[in-house]
């Protein structure tokens, strides 16, 4: 009989491509992953991996079993969701992944309502990479908080067995240190005038940089003297020390250091939408349902907090 855990390891190997990466993703040692896959080969009676000095890759039989494993694991999850619905209790572990600013803003607001459900546990992970949707699709996590700058609103309907739930819009705002001329709300924010300022930005590899580049593209782009630092937390810390100014998503204001003033930008400034992505079948689990409800409530609270911090 095929073991579901070993099928999961094989499917994970098909995604990660190496034994080491599979082990890191699953929290195992590489030797444990190798042993699980070797045992699965004995159970099936066929070679699933082609091993060499350079590594390992799936054989044709391995790829066939991965395809079947996807269907088997999806059916198991669907069955578990149906059974969970019958109990009507929020039980088990719900795993959520989020980009950093969403994790900082939402995590404190999720704990109180979810702690009321003694039979469930929340695991919240942060990721800098735009891999949340893929992690939901591959069943690595139950829910992903993702951002979208395209304005195409994927939350309008299901996509490949996934649901996109629109939580909030997140406009770009201007962060300046207290004492800066632009900290005075009576001073208008004019994009052309911002080019004379010292700018602090995130690298092009970070998604928040897209909003800054789009904002300043209207006036010729970033000044050549702009300095790059990884992470919006670092950027805002430097701004609070008077080292420069920055344009950041409003969500970054939550939990940011003191000494900052946030100004609204012109209506043409870019904004992103924040979504919760969940597998449609997983959304039937009561524990996932209460987590989604808590995320919606948290988004409303975050919006109110942002409105209270913002300076006109």
UniProtKB/TrEMBL annotation:
Name by which UniProt lists this protein: Transcriptional regulator, LysR family
SUPFAM superfamilies: Periplasmic binding protein-like II, Winged helix' DNA-binding domain
Keywords: DNA-binding, Transcription, Transcription regulation
Biological source species: Nocardiopsis dassonvillei (strain ATCC 23218 / DSM 43111 / CIP 107115 / JCM 7437 / KCTC 9190 / NBRC 14626 / NCTC 10488 / NRRL B-5397 / IMRU 509) (Actinomadura dassonvillei)
GO MF annotation: an example: DNA-binding transcription factor activity
GO CC, alphabetical: protein-DNA complex
Top-rank lineage group of the source organism: Bacteria
Family stated for the protein in its record: Belongs to the LysR transcriptional regulatory family.
Domain HTH lysR-type: 2-59
Database matches in Pfam families: HTH_1, LysR_substrate
Lineage: Bacteria, Bacillati, Actinomycetota, Actinomycetes, Streptosporangiales
PROSITE patterns linked to this entry: HTH_LYSR
């Amino acid at each position: 009989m095929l073991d579901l855990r070993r099928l999961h390891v094989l499917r994970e190997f098909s995604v990660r491509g190496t034994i080491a990466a599979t082990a890191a993703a699953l929290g195992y040692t590489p030797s444990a992953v190798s042993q699980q896959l070797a045992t699965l080969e004995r159970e099936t009676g066929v070679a699933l991996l082609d091993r060499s000095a350079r590594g390992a890759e799936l054989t044709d039989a391995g790829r066939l079993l991965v395809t079947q494993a996807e269907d088997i694991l999806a059916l198991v999850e669907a069955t578990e969701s149906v059974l969970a619905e019958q109990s009507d209790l929020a039980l088990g572990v719900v795993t959520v992944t989020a980009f950093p600013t969403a994790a900082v803003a939402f995590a404190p607001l999720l704990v109180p309502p979810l702690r009321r459900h003694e039979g469930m546990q929340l695991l919240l992970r942060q990721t800098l990479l735009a891999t949340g949707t893929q992690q939901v699709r591959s069943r690595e996590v139950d829910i992903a908080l993702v951002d979208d700058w395209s304005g195409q609103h994927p939350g309008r309907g299901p996509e490949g067995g996934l649901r996109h739930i629109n939580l909030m819009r997140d406009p770009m705002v201007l962060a300046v240190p207290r004492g800066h001329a632009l900290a005075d709300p009576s001073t208008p924010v004019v994009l052309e005038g911002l080019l004379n300022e010292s700018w602090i930005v995130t690298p092009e590899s970070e998604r928040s940089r897209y909003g800054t580049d789009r904002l300043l593209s209207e006036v010729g782009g970033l000044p050549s003297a702009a300095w790059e630092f990884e992470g919006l937390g670092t950027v805002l810390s430097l701004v609070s020390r008077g080292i420069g100014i920055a344009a950041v998503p409003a969500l970054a204001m939550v939990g940011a250091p003191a000494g900052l003033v946030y100004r609204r930008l012109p209506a043409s400034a870019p904004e992103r939408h924040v979504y919760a992505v969940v597998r449609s079948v997983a959304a039937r689990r009561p524990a996932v349902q209460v987590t989604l409800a808590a995320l919606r409530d948290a988004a409303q609270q975050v919006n109110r907090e942002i409105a209270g911090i913002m300076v006109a």
